[in-house]
Amino acid sequence: MARSIPDSFARVRRLGQRTLVILLFLAAGLVSPQRLALAEEVDYTRQIKPVLRDRCYACHGPLKQESGLRLDTAAAAVRGGDGGAAIVAGDPAASGLWQRVTSDDAASRMPPEGEPLSAEQIEQIRVWIAAGAAAPSDEQPEPDPRDHWAFRVPRRPSVPSAATPQGVDSPTASAAATDVAATDVAGAVDNPIDAFIQRRLDEHRLTPVPLAERPLLLRRLYVDLIGLPPSRDELHELLADDSPDAYERVVDRLLASPRYGER
Predict the structure, then answer these.
(1) Which of 117, 163, 206, 218 could cysteine-pair with 201, CB 3.0–4.6 Å?
(2) What is the pTM of this model?
């Protein structure tokens, strides 16, 4: 009970301080009571920006800026375009955005396609502008979709050479002189993809796992492609084949098998 009295006084004091600040602003004419009330009713991030994103960005966003106007940030809307400012903080009637979304002329009304904005959306825009068009100071424009990796022209990178990157001691190179597994490690680079992996391993001073033995490789291959391990006879036959392309021929044969891809 003894602690509740000071807590109550503290709450009253904080409330009084906030009230005093508001009264000072009102007395100085910096903010009207109406604008102060409106500012608490509409939130730009939750209510205004989603409407602009859905209905305006197609013509006034990162990809296209008709009449030089962008609306993907509040700051850009204030700067406006060829027709002037889209937003004049505190004055909806002077704001190009408000004029367009409320126009009775189908040729000038925005958005030009689809249904007009709802009465609720229009009112929220009016309230937001009238309250001062507050928005986050760190708001960033939407990225240009053309910068997405999917739109970049593919370029084939040069395949890293077997040489170790400058200034990096390759663990595989040192292993070649001391480790019996070095033969397997050196033979791991069989195609361009392996070369990129090997370069990154060398950069981080990592030693790749030695190549698996042929029986294990063949078992993995069979299970991956047809879902069944090789029979004992198949395994003996495959291991007896010493030709350089023996493994590749097994891959081709399994890919051509009717069992490949079965569920």
Answers:
(1) 206
(2) 0.49
Cα–Cα dist 168/203, whole Å = 6
pLDDT at 184: 40
**How many helices and strands in the chain, by DSSP H and E?**
13, 0
Task: Give the residue extent of every domain in the chain.
Answer: 44-135, 161-211, 214-255
Hey, how many other C-beta atoms are within 10 angstroms of the C-beta on 54?
Answer: 13
Minimum mean pLDDT range among 29-43, 61-75, 112-126: 29-43
Tokens in use for 120? 């609720």
**Is the previous residue joined to 111 through a cis bond, with omega within 30 degrees of 0?**
yes
Q: What does DSSP assign to residue 32?
A: -
- Nearest-angstrom CA–CA distance, 9 and 192: 74
End-to-end CA distance of the chain: 73
Kindly state the tokens that stand for 100: 């367009």
- Integer-rounded Cα Rg, in Å, for the chain is 35
Among candidates 107, 136, 115, which has minimal Cα distance to 55? 115
